[in-house]
Design a protein that fits this description.
There is one protein chain. The protein is an alpha+beta fold and about 230 residues long. It has a single domain, classed as Class II aldolase/adducin N-terminal domain (L-fuculose-1-phosphate Aldolase), CATH 3.40.225.10. It has an 8-stranded mixed beta sheet, with helices on both faces. Helix 5 links the parallel strand 6 and strand 7. Helix 4 packs antiparallel against helix 6. The N and C termini lie far apart (about 40 Å). Bound molecules: zinc ion. The site of zinc ion (ZN) has 6 residues, from loops.
Length: about 230
């Protein structure tokens, strides 16, 4: 019996639309999203364009029939409803992250504005606000450059994420966010984009960021430790 679930294709599609609606994709097929069903381990991922299939004008143009289903080894279990679709060209990076961080249930790869400034200059994004620590795990490291679609790009991103970060920059390219589920990954993406914006505004105004406390004990009163979900 097939382990492929229509419900998870729908989740992948909705995550793709959400991603575009948040301004995390510049145009056409820039960036991509994938989700992993924890029950089966199958990955539902955006398709790559081909000669007969263009993602125009943007990710809002795809349908549930375009979602590709793969396993952790990259085998295509279903190439969309027509069977001829391949996963996004950044599939080596998605697989490298799922392998290195098995708790991951969703990966969002963005080409967005404010994180793009840091990616373009190869700088880490400082932990400017409490929410950066809460969602991304601390400052966001910029990975070494890796060619688009390469295993090296995936390896460099895994290194930048380490064991304790949920966001990383792809040098001169974009950013990647991970979460245990779709909402967590998107929360990390939205807050990181905001953190990059805040850091840039502070610099532009000639203001200096001050060091962020890093331990749970410094950040929160112990009485609410049990209620913390994200750190
Ligand atoms: Zn990209």
């Amino acid at each position: 019996m097939s382990q492929i679930k229509q419900e998870w294709k729908q989740k992948a599609l909705e995550a793709t639309y959400r991603y575009y609606d948040l301004g995390l994709s510049t145009s056409r097929d820039s960036g991509d999203v994938s989700v992993r069903d924890p029950e089966t381990g199958l990955i539902y991922i955006d398709p790559r364009p081909n000669a007969n299939f263009k993602i125009v004008p943007n990710w809002r143009s795809i349908t549930i029939d375009d979602i590709v289903v793969i396993d952790i080894d990259g085998n295509i279990l279903e190439g969309g409803a027509t069977g001829d679709k391949k996963p996004t060209i950044e599939v080596p990076m998605h697989l490298a992250i799922y392998r290195a961080r098995p708790e991951t249930g969703c990966i969002v790869h963005s080409h967005a504005l404010y994180t793009g400034v840091f990616a373009a200059t190869g700088e880490d994004i400082p932990a400017a606000l409490l929410e950066t620590v809460l969602n991304a795990g601390g400052e966001i490291r910029c990975a070494e450059y890796g060619p688009v679609s390469s295993q090296l790009l995936g390896d460099n991103i895994v290194k930048a994420l380490g064991k304790d970060r949920n966001a990383a920059l792809l040098r001169q390219h974009g950013a990647v966010y991970i979460g245990k589920d779709i909402d967590t990954a998107f929360m990390c993406a939205e807050y990181t984009e905001r953190s990059a914006h805040v850091a840039l505004l502070a610099r532009a105004a000639g203001m200096k960021l001050i060091p962020m406390p890093t331990t749970k004990e410094e950040l929160f009163d112990p009485s609410i430790f049990d209620e913390l979900d994200v750190i």
